[in-house]
Amino acid sequence: MENVLSILFCLTLLYLVITSRLKTYVSILRAQGVLLSAIMIFPFMRHLSVHILIIPLMSLIVKAIVIPRFINKIIIDLDVKRIVEPSIQPFNFLLLSVASMSTIFVAAHVLSGYTPIEPIPFASAFSAIVTGILLIIFRKKLIVHVVGFLILENGIFLFGTSVAAEMPTIVELGSLLDVFVVVFLMGIAINKISSTFAKQDVTVLGRLKD
Amino acid sequence: MTILSVLIVLPLISIGVCYFIHIRKTQYIISLLVAIAHLVCSYLVFSGLFIPAENDFFRFDALSRLFLIILSHVYFWVVLVSYSYLNRPLIVKEEKSKKLYFTMLNVYLFANTLALISNHLGVFWVASETTTLSVAPLIYYYRDEESLEAMWKYLFLVSVGIAFAFIGFVFLALSAGGTVLEGQQLLVTSFTQYATQLNPIWLKASFIFVFVGLSTKIGIAPMHPGDIDATSNAPSPAAALMSGSLRGTALLGVLRVYQIMVPTATADFARTIMIIGGIFSLFVAFVFMFKVTNYKRMIAYSSVEHLGLITLGIGTGGIAFVGAMLHTVFNSLTKVVLFLNAGNIHRAYRSREVNSVWNVLQAMPWTGWFFLFGFFAIIAMPPFGIFFSELMIFQGLLTKPFLLGAVLFFLFFIFVGMSKTVFHMLYTAPPDGDTLVITEKFEITHFVSLTLLILLVVLGLCIPSQLYSLVVQISKDFGILL
């Protein structure tokens, strides 16, 4: 089941690559939040307890409800143009990300031969990290950069669950809080940038250099 | 337990108090009291007079104790000058930033202490991300376009960098597959204990990710730009804090992973990576020292240079490692002097451009002389401490003559580039002939500069036995026998 959910997670990434509407980005973030929580709950389906449910529930609230809402609010408040202007052709972007995803899946399959990893969640997580970075590189809008960062964070979250790195509950909660505050601060910064500069994309941020 | 509560709980309480009380003087007094209490406790822990009980999550080994005393020291001086700094008339927009200033300082102290004494890499990760969040509003203090850009870049780059470091920590967990540590918590102590059983490939991958990720925060080239923008646009006390202690905290994360690798065959790999990072940072500092036109950016590049030297020293090992540890202490203190006086110059000339600053020695003699002595200290002029620590690093590098040659070449030209800028600011008469006239009094920043410069000379000439034995203990923990 985890594998099925991970594959779904990967499909959201592909959708993310071809879409150019900001609204879709937010829906994808929501979907990923739900998928991540589901992936976290599944191994414990047989013996659920309040203690186990805390983290998935919190991540559901933060990743699927609070953060997407906040990003939606920024888009509406700032009246950001709803279409993203990519700096490369969408088809080339798709090609690039499919190529990197397949490389990652093959590499994960090879690696699973001699280390105890689950290839599909591992590869999905890594694909999300790469897609997040590609999104940051090839898109100009700052709000899309924030989405890219969140996709990267989602990937890392999935990564952490897929290799079962033991983290105490308080650390997991702390990391969720950190992600939320980062996004919150970035939101404030975008707000300020839009009131200071004419546009909200990276081209306005070129004053500091030597 | 008492020490732990002073170190962590007291700043936490102070965050709440500073947030809800809007009287600046009260905020200042509370923050200062917390800083003093923190300094006293760190000193007790540092000198070994009181070693708190360790548990799974917190530990007070020699490395933590050294970085803790650096943090406490830098933080104390920064808080001490903050009140007079906030009371300077500069621009109207700042007023809003001043409300949050002390709250953020306390958040910084809390998170940074937590990161330094944590034994759990997950705790370290969360805490070091929190330090980034605490300095971001401080960078935006002046509320102008530059500081906005600097804050955005710093927040974004460092957050992505720290995310990478997290991947590194997960790889570390993967490396434990098939050993007794599988599925266990990411504790540095237990990983060090069973280090030889860990999978070397994952261990190497882990180090690369942690090093590259945390480089954004340490300021190791080529990941340094966010750091440069942030330190040069932040208000001087915050810049001193970032250069003096935040970079060290990130370095501690790299050192922790390296510590795990030391007993294994992968240690050489880690050392090579650190040497490459260090030498590349020196190269970048060398190139940009001739290009910069902004004196705060110049000091920020000097941080890149010195953190590069420290990484190089750690990578070289032996006596260079000892030198690198001492260098962390001296570099932190010197950066406080430089940034505080650069702040004074900025206040008087209202510009960070080198070409708008003339004749500082005549216009503001106190600041000018302290800036000059700070410059002497940072370029490793004897009898300041950095001279002795750099000498140790060079001594360690003697076995690698080509590397030593390159390092000396870069350092010499960094010295030339930096002195060109500094002497231009201090001595050149303005083209139109009218020198700025300022009646400068001996202020608290000058007192702090004087104290720190004296401390640097004293520490350099007769290094306290406590400090030296602590550094020797750290070297032993890293498998270096002197």
Overview features:
heterodimer; A: 210 residues; mainly alpha; B: 482 residues; 76% helix
What does it look like?
The complex is a heterodimer of chains A (210) and B (482). With 210 residues, chain A is mainly alpha-helical. Chain A has helices spanning 2-18, 22-41, 50-78, 90-112, 119-138, 142-162, 169-196. The relative contact order of chain A is 0.14. Chain B is mainly α. Chain B has a domain at 281-482. In chain B, 76% of the residues lie in helices and 0% in strands. Chain B has helices at residues 2-20, 24-46, 62-86, 94-117, 121-139, 145-175, 188-193, 200-218, 225-233, 236-261, 267-289, 295-316, 319-349, 360-363, 365-378, 385-397, 401-427, 444-461, 465-477. The radius of gyration of chain B is 21 Å and the shape is globular. Chain B starts with a helix and ends in a 5-residue tail after the last helix. The interface between A and B is large, with 37 and 49 residues.
Quick recap:
The complex is a heterodimer of chains A (210) and B (482). Chain A has 210 residues and is an all-alpha fold. Chain A is built from seven helices and no strands.
